């Protein structure tokens, strides 16, 4: 934080505290010229105003609040870059990567000075670590039959995966539906775990990186529509098949059923990651698509990924 923002925080904060003290002292003094308890000389709606002092309990409470605020600011961070006498921090807010975060935690451990977040994580790991170790030692084929484990996996999924895939795991445009049984990289237990552990980077270059002219896009789109079993223009689809054979089959297969080893979608089913309309399909062919799912092995650890994998598998394998 720059010195400007430090000053911007410190000066207004101290001015407010000082202003409260001045205002409270001023309000406890009788500066009206009227004896306390006597009428101020006016009334409204039958209610007469008297020159009564502030209640003592209220004034004392206000003083205590001010003192508490000053002591708090001295003990804990709150005034710009001032770290407080306790040196307490809520989290490692200056880190910009997982590597920096891990290094900061190790440094804090060495100095016996964990942030509150790191301390709570360490406490949770000590309490729940043995439970997740037990889950990790259980084969996924057995774990998918454990209702308690699946409930744990569901909570982990909602906390970490729902932002993209939705709380019901049905995804949205550009984010796969995990409950429909259609899998780009394979839907077996090992495939799902690998996807979560290592992440995925799916990329289709514009026009597949092939010598396809703009004039061929309509026909190629119509051929893809035909592959999915929908009503189509037969003549236009026949033209598009020739474009498809220029090289699209290298990823999607001669029959259009895709390739899980490359993450190439199956064009013959009814699962469309970026939309099933002709416009969306043509856009995908013309401009290409790029999708990235981050690797979770360093964020959650294999123990939690193991449980999430079982839960995700259960969504499409009831």
From TrEMBL:
Keyword Repeat: yes
GO molecular-function terms, A-Z: electron transfer activity; heme binding; iron ion binding; oxidoreductase activity
Subcellular location: Cell inner membrane
Classification via SUPFAM superfamilies: Cytochrome c
Record: residues binding heme c 2: 204, 248, 251-252
Membrane spanning residue stretches: 7-26, 57-76
Cofactor: binding comment: Binds 2 heme C groups per subunit.
This protein's pathway: Energy metabolism; oxidative phosphorylation
Assembly: Component of the cbb3-type cytochrome c oxidase.
PANTHER family listed in its UniProt record: CBB3-TYPE CYTOCHROME C OXIDASE SUBUNIT FIXP
Recorded family membership: Belongs to the CcoP / FixP family.
Protein name as annotated: Cbb3-type cytochrome c oxidase subunit
Annotated source species: Shewanella maritima
